[in-house]
Design a protein that fits this description.
109 residues; mainly alpha; Non-ribosomal Peptide Synthetase Peptidyl Carrier Protein, Chain A; ACP-like_sf; PP-bd_ACP; Acyl carrier protein
Length: 109
């Protein structure tokens, strides 16, 4: 079974424990406050395509920078791909992997 990109980039398997929670609600708030989407972020499921919702490549870079600041992580080159930012679930997984844990919170959050 292939490891997710974040596990390969971070060189770690997901761990529970004291890792900060990466919630879908936090990501939705970043998206809503930023104006990077053409629709209301609260209307999106965790799996909806953010690019179809209006996220641009410029917006994804700004989102990455906001996530780095919020969670104190740095996205390695291996994660600088469209699919890393294509959905709330993909973002949660990537950030959680960089933090050394698993995504936390529940669904729409």
């Amino acid at each position: 079974m292939r490891q997710p990109d974040w596990q390969i980039a971070a060189g770690t398997a997901p761990r529970g424990g004291d890792a900060p929670v990466v919630s879908a609600a936090d990501i939705r708030t970043l998206l809503a406050d930023s104006g990077w989407l053409a629709i209301d972020a609260s209307a999106l499921s965790d799996e909806d395509d953010l690019y179809a919702a209006g996220l641009t490549s410029h917006g994804s870079v700004n989102l990455m920078l906001a996530l780095e600041e919020r969670y104190g992580v740095e996205f390695p080159e291996q994660l600088l791909r469209r699919r890393t930012f294509e959905s709330i679930a993909a973002i949660r997984s990537a950030v959680a992997g960089l933090l050394g844990g698993a995504p936390g919170g529940m669904g729409a959050g």
